[in-house]
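Per-residue structure
===
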Amino acid sequence: MHGSEDKDAAHSTPEDDPRPQLLPRVLGSLAIVGLMVGLMIGRLTTPDPTALLQVEPATDGLVVWFNHEPKLHGEHIDGTVALLFDAQGHAQAGQLKVNDKDVNWRVRKTDGGLLLNLVAARPLRGEWSGKAVDDRWRLEIHLLEQ
C-alpha cells in the first residue's frame, strides 16, 4: 500500500457513505425543542415583579400600595426616614402634614430599587407596617417628631 487513494477498493480505507447522516440533525432538533420548552416553562413560573402602585398621604404619614409584598429596608438617617423597596415604579414627590408641620416625601429610582425619603424641618422618627389587602400590599408609614 502506497497511499490511501481509491483505485480498486482493495485497501483498508472505507468508501464514503452516500446516505445523509440524520442522527446529528435529530439530536440537534431535540436539543432546540428542549431548550424552547424549558424557556417557556421558566417564563410561566416566574412571578410578576413587585411594582409600586400608588402613594397616598395619611393623617400622620403615608400609605404606599404595591401589587405584592416587596423586600424592604428602612433606616433613620440624620432625622430623616429612608425606605428602600425592591420594586419597580416611577419617581414621585409630594408633601403631607404631621402635627400641622410640613413633611416632604420623594420616591426615586436607585440601583437597589425604589428609595422613599421623608424629610421635615425637625427630625423625624418613623414606624412602618404592612399587610395584604384585596390582593395588594399596603404599607403604612407613621411619622413622629423627635
About this structure: The radius of gyration is 32 Å.
